[in-house]
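Thread: "does anyone have the structure for this chain?"

Original post by V.I.:
We have the sequence but no experimental structure in hand. Need at least a predicted one for the grant figures.
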Amino acid sequence: MASSRHLWVGGLPEEMDEAAIKDYFSKYGKIEGVKILPQRYPNIGLAAFIDFFDVKGAIEAKEAKHKIGNTELRTNFKTKAGDKFDRREGGKWRDSQGEGEKHESAKSEKSRGRDRYI
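Reply from O.Q.:
Generated one for you, tokens below.
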């Protein structure tokens, strides 16, 4: 996956707000903004996008291990608009055309001459 200045972070404690997230990650570089994503499932923590001013800070934050309380945070880069993060595949990004690693339980069918995973 290509590096990006946009970092996705998952497993954040539910009590963390944008200011606390920015404060925690600012040791890696100057942060342009933080967006906390709507919580889709209870008791799994929050997820957020952290936008660094430069890619170097995002890379350093991605490479570091993060643990808050008893929870280890997950990080990944967001590469382009339209990419989707798929929890079913162990936290892999899928592009807007659905390309990505095939999940073991996915069924393949031929559609207009190319594989489509459903």
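V.I.: this helps a lot. DSSP finds two helices and ten strands in the chain.
O.Q.: and Strands lie at 6-12, 31-36, 46-52, 67-68, 71-72, 74-77, 84-86, 92-94, 108-111, 114-117.
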